[in-house]
Design goal:
The chain is mainly α and 222 residues long. It has a domain of 152 residues. The protein is built from nine helices and four strands, in the order αββααααααββαα. The strands form two sheets. The chain has a two-stranded antiparallel sheet. A two-stranded antiparallel ribbon has the order 3-4. A hairpin with a 2-residue loop joins strand 3 and strand 4.
Length: 222
């Protein structure tokens, strides 16, 4: 174990107008048009979910404007991806799935029995959802099973949510060749999520949400 000691903290003035990286015209700015396009070039589809209120004969509502949080979280993951914030992108793609679990009425009996009346995103609850008919198997990668208790989609989210980037490094060690470090290996994983990981979470979440919505499930609106 390596240790260090905090020797100083400074609180310094901050003025957003003087932050160089906010200038989108600069090539290294996260808001640079070309950088955003490059980060999101693999995103070729988005989602619109419409919900009809069971109690009132009103026009269907677009789920994104509701408080359910499924597509709003998924779009937030894309927004974070666009500006190179891969950690929150991983997190929000996972939140979108968790929102599904907690608003599908098929899981209400289990949800209301929890202390917080909220089902956490974990292997046990994903298996529970699958047994209730939700397509959570789409979140698994090849070779994974609910019984293993270790699901990459969940573990990535947990490591990011709890700030355990050292643990994330253990999951996805960086790539090296006999001649030394390679940039291509570096993007596969180091001490935090890569663009590739964010895209993987976004894609798995999207596939799950689409197949779930095709079931036309009844959802809890409040």
């Amino acid at each position: 174990m390596y240790t260090g000691t905090v020797i100083e903290v400074k609180v310094v003035p901050y003025d957003i107008t003087k932050v160089e990286t906010i200038k989108a015209s600069l090539p290294y700015s996260p808001y640079n048009y070309n950088n955003i396009v490059e980060n999101c070039k693999s995103i070729t589809e988005t989602l619109i979910i419409s919900i009809q209120d069971d109690g009132r004969a009103t026009f269907p509502i677009v789920e994104r404007i509701s408080d359910i949080g499924i597509t709003s979280s998924w779009f937030c993951a894309i927004d974070c991806l666009a500006v190179g914030l891969y950690e929150p992108s991983v997190l929000f793609a996972s939140i979108a799935v968790e929102c599904v679990l907690n608003h599908d009425v098929r899981l209400d009996d289990e949800r209301i029995q929890t202390n917080r009346q909220w089902l956490d995103l974990n292997a046990k609850n994903l298996e529970l959802a699958h047994n209730k008919g939700l397509p959570t198997n789409l979140l698994l990668k090849i070779g994974e099973s609910f019984a293993s208790g270790s699901i990459e989609f969940v573990m990535r989210r947990n490591k990011v949510a709890h700030g355990d980037l050292e643990g994330y490094l253990n999951m996805h060690p960086g790539g090296f060749t006999p001649t030394g470090f390679t940039e291509s290996g570096f993007t596969i994983g180091y001490s935090r999520p890569s663009r590739k990981h964010a895209l993987s979470q976004i894609d798995k979440a999207k596939n799950f949400i689409v197949e779930w919505a095709k079931q036309k499930p009844q959802v809890r609106l409040h």
